[in-house]
Structures are given as C-alpha cells and as structure tokens.
Amino acid sequence: MTSPLLTVNNLRTSFRSDRGTVRAVDGVSFTLNRGEILGLVGESGSGKSMTAMSIMRLIPEPPGSVEADELRFDGIDLLALSERQMLDVRAARIAMIFQDPMRSLNPVLSVGRQLTETLRRHLALDGAAARRRAIELLEMVGIPMAKSRLGAYPHEFSGGMRQRVMIAIALSCNPSLLIADEATTALDVTVQAQIVDLIKTLVKDIGASVIWISHDLGLVANLCDRVNVMYAGRIVESGPIRDVFYRPSHGYTLGLMSCTPRIDLVGERLRPIEGLPPDLSRPMTLCPFLPRCAHSVDRCRTERPALIEEQPAHWASCFADLTGSWRQTT
Amino acid sequence: MTSPLLQVENLCVSFPGTGGARVRAVDGVSFTIERGKTLGLVGESGCGKSTTGYSLLQLIKPTSGRVIVDGIDIASLSRREMRPYRRRLQIIFQDAAASLDPRMSVGDLIGEALDIHGLARGTARLPRIRKLLDLVGIPARLLQRFPHELSGGQAQRVAICRALAVEPMLIVCDEPVSALDVSIQAQIINLMQDLQKELGLAYLFISHDLSVVRHISDRIAVMYLGRIVETADKHEIFGSAAHPYTKALLSAVPVPDPDMERTRERIVLRGDLPSPANPPSGCRFRTRCPVPIDDCAQIDPPWKTLSETHHAACIRIQGIPETSLFEGVRY
C-alpha cells in the first residue's frame, strides 16, 4: 500500500488574545490518500479553514502558533520548512482556492499577468511559453476567447468567471493537493454546478487529491469520498461518505443533518441545534457539543469521549447510541 | 372570495445605465400575496428579486406598475401618505447586524419603532418591548446590549422583533437566513413559521436558496432577468416544474444524500446571466436554455396556464410534465 499524500497528526493551532489562548484547531488528525477527495464540514468557527491555513503554513506566527506531532506532505515535513522553502511548495505542490476570488485576485494586475507569474515562478517558463500555457489554462477552465481575455482585469469578469480564473491559477502547476475553501459558496447554484463539474474533471485528469471545505452537506455528498466533521476545533466524526451520511454517529453530525432544509423532502419541521457554539478560549473537559446535544447520555457529563473507530474506517467521538435515529437509505 | 393582502401589477423598475441605456432590473412583474401566506421569490443574483421587494415597499420608487394594498395603489402615494402603510409592510435584511443602528441598545431599537408610530407610550412602553422580545426568543437580559454584542442569530431575531413591533401584515424578508450557519438558520426559520401562525403574518420570502424556500413557502415565483418565468403552489413547482429554467435551478441544488447526488440527472446551464441592460430578444432565458428553438428569439413567451395555480412563460411547454425531479426517492 502506498503512503498517504498528507498525514496530519495532532495539529494544534492557537492564537493569543486578550481573553487568553484561543484553540482554533485542537488536536486534529487525519490522512489524505492520493487521488482522494476529502470533505471538511462544520459551522463557522469550527476550525475548517484554520486547519487548511495551518497545512499551508499561512498562519502568521505570532500571534498564531501551529504545532503538530506530524505534518507530512508527500514525504516532506511541512513544519520543518523555512518560509522560503514553503514558497516552493505553495501553488506548485499544494494549491488553494478561496471563497471570494475578488479578494484573492490582485485587482490591479491583469489575469494574464497573475497566471504567468505563477508559471514563471514555479515552472521557470519564459514569457512566451508562460503566455501560451496561460491561454491553454483559461481554455481548460472554460473561459471563452481566452487569448483576448489575458489582458483583462478581475473586475471585468463575472463571479463565476473569476472563480474559473482562480482555478486556472491553482491548477497551473499541476499540484498534488488542491485545498478548496468554500470555493463555490459565493456563486449561484447554476454556476456552482458548472464549477463543481469542472473541478471534478480537472482533478481527475491531473490526479490531484482535494480537501473540500464547505458548510454545504449536499456539495460534500456529491463530491467527496470521505468526510471529516469538525466542531469546536476538533474532528468529531470521520468516515467514508455513505457511512457518515447514512449512519451519522456523532450527536453533532446528526444535529447538522436534521436542521438542514432539503429540497428533496417535504414539510416536516426543522429540528434546529439550540444554543451557540462554545467559546474556544475556555478550556473544555467534556464533549464541546454537550450543551447543545439532543442525544446526550449520563456518561457525557463525567468524561470526554475520544475519537474511536466505531465501524471499520468510521470514527466518532460520541457516547450516545444513535442507531436508528436517522433515516436509513439503501 | 376575499381580496388578496397585496397585489402587484406589472411592476417595472429601471435605472439609468451606461450610454443612455436603461437597466430594466424589474420588467413587468405581477403577483399576489394572500393573508397569512408566504410567497417565495427565487432566482439568481441580479435577477431583480431584491429590487422587486424594495420597490413594492416604495423604498425604490417603481418606474411603472401598481402595488395595491387594501384597494389603494401605494405606488401613487406621497411619502407622507405612505406612512400608515409602512406600519403594514415591514422588511428584514440578510445582514441583520448592519440593519440595526450600532449606537442604539436592543431596547431602544424596538422602542424607536413603537415611538415612530405612536404605539405603547409611557408606562406601557417597556412592558411592550419586553413582550415583543419574548416573542422572538430574546432574553430580557439582552435589553441593554448593543448590536455588536449580539450573535448573528440574535441580531436577526432583534431585526424581526423590530419589524413586528408595529404589527405589520406583511414582512418582506430579503435573504434573512443566508448569512447564518445551518443550525442557527433552522432556529430562525422555525421562529418565522411560529410567528406567522400566531400573528397571521404574510411573508414575501426572497432567497436564492431553494431548499429554504421550499421549506417556508406556500407559493413560489421564479425570476429570471427581471421577469417572473414560472409561478405555482409549492408542490407544483417541486413536483412538476415546467419552465426549463426552474428545472435547471432545481436540478442544480445539491442534496445531502450521496447515492442520490451521484445518480440524479443534472441540467447544467451554460454561461452566466446576461446583462439586464441588454437582455436577449424574445425569451430572455434562451441564451442559456438547454432546449431552445428558433422561435424563442422572436417570441416574447406568453403565460401558459398549466393549472389554476400554475403558470409558466415558455413556448416549449406542451403540457404538465409528468415526472418529478425527485421521483423514485422515498422517505
């Protein structure tokens, strides 16, 4: 068996603040296999983006601090790299797409310049070759009249087209890992469908692995092979996509599924998760979801559950027996 | 038959665009809203759904068309004459925190609405504020808090409370839960449904999220580039959508069910929304339509009646489609 592309072991990302240390990521461990699409779901503040930013070494230290027992990408210890060495990894080996392409593209540079910049920096192409490749890339992501669009600026593109430009830049150096952080959240559903199809096809073509960060369970169901559910800086459930969606094994996952309105279902009242997520600057000795959980048992009030393998490859940190509390399909 | 609460007839809103062209953001929209019911207005960004909401409240003056409340066309009223109707028609926004004055406490925000309309004066004022806050699930201890001290969900509750304070008949809800996490979103949706039942409120619920709209609406109107293209009762839209745009929109919404997601048929539209300053001739959807014919460029599609409650504007529609997009899925 080949080694995983990415190994994250006990990742801890925290920030110093006036109110004490905020543990944004609090002991996250997972692996990502080659060619695999892994979903990362959870609410705002659950640590999804912070996990991604930590892997990319994009957390400013100080005020942040990133520690891990192991953070290994394709044999490279990412934590041991200098910022200079990390520059060779970013974009070339690990690429990232963000939610808002307007904020991640430079408004005063043409998209052609932004594409060729990456190509010249990482692939050492000369100007003419980089230009040819940039046109190819824009065509690949479905931008019409690519050649004449090279000189255009980000504001001249629609939201969907801008996100296509971002994808072109991200995939320009054939990265082995693509991290997409709410990449389609700002887009309309019809455009989102185009972009998701595009990403699916392209990553297959270049054989990249993907970490797909989203709060949209439907998108994750569509796209991912496995999913990690995060809450309060921790992974609370992890497993193959069908196992997690058809047999949710953590109170939070179940809560998330029950409160999501679905277009394919009629009428029953939504079951919201009451209360608010916890303050991450307070130390937590019990399950962080306990105050909001509708399925807690006595044991939840005395000790904190560990993440254990409840079914083969299906992990959860929950004492409650949730069998039968979710509709079973197929 | 009683008359509807609100009747919008041929509403048009246009803005000056570049080079003298008018941007027709809303171009001949008509619908009615019944007392105590919810009309969901859906469509992609830029289709004119928010402009429709604002212009029926006269926050943007319509270029033409009528907005009839209690037999009066409020589009023809002056600002002063409009005032009593403001009490009847309220609005809440997507970014609730931004819609609340940051320098006013929760109590003052609600109190201001009461003062403006001369409701609950003197000793009756504070108890009334408390009662209103209780209605939306805001604990009384938050009375002295300021908007920045509230969570997103709490801010939206305060915004709803402020709208309710003047006892409206209709609330225009412009993407009221889009900025919230799903767990909080469900709290607000349930609250809005409870309030509707309790107070007999009507909602115009504007959203791009079809899953949420399906959940909360009685009737649904689908907008594309300034026009309504299909309108029907909820079960008709989701059971037998007729317009190719509605079908595409429904098929593009992801469903949190891996097997279904991977097997269901998806209609992926080409391209982006055309500019409302220069809409395509004939049917506006034809440039992205999966099933256009030559006539679509010539004919502005008239309304086709599919049932007493179901209408669609497309010349390609033969009859009511028999298959549902979600057929074969049982729960």
Explain what this protein looks like in three dimensions:
- The complex is a heterodimer of chains A (330) and B (331).
- Helix content of chain A is 31%, strand content 22%.
- In chain A, the strands form two sheets. An eight-stranded mixed beta sheet of chain A has the order 7-8-9-3-10-11-13-12, with helices on both faces. In chain A, strands 1, 2, 4, 5 and 6 form a five-stranded antiparallel beta sheet that branches.
- In chain A, β1 and β2 (20-32) form a beta hairpin.
- Chain A is an alpha/beta fold and 330 residues long.
- Chain A has helices spanning 48-55, 83-89, 101-104, 111-123, 127-140, 146-149, 159-171, 189-206, 217-223, 241-246, 251-259; strands at residues 6-17, 20-32, 37-41, 64-67, 70-73, 76-77, 94-97, 177-181, 209-213, 226-231, 234-240, 308-311, 314-316.
- Chain B is an alpha/beta fold and 331 residues long.
- Chain B has one domain: 3-Layer(aba) Sandwich (Rossmann fold), CATH 3.40.50.
- Chain B starts with 5 loop residues before the first strand and ends in an 18-residue tail after the last strand.
- Chains A and B meet through α7, α8, α9, α10 and α11 of A and α7, α8, α10 and α11 of B.
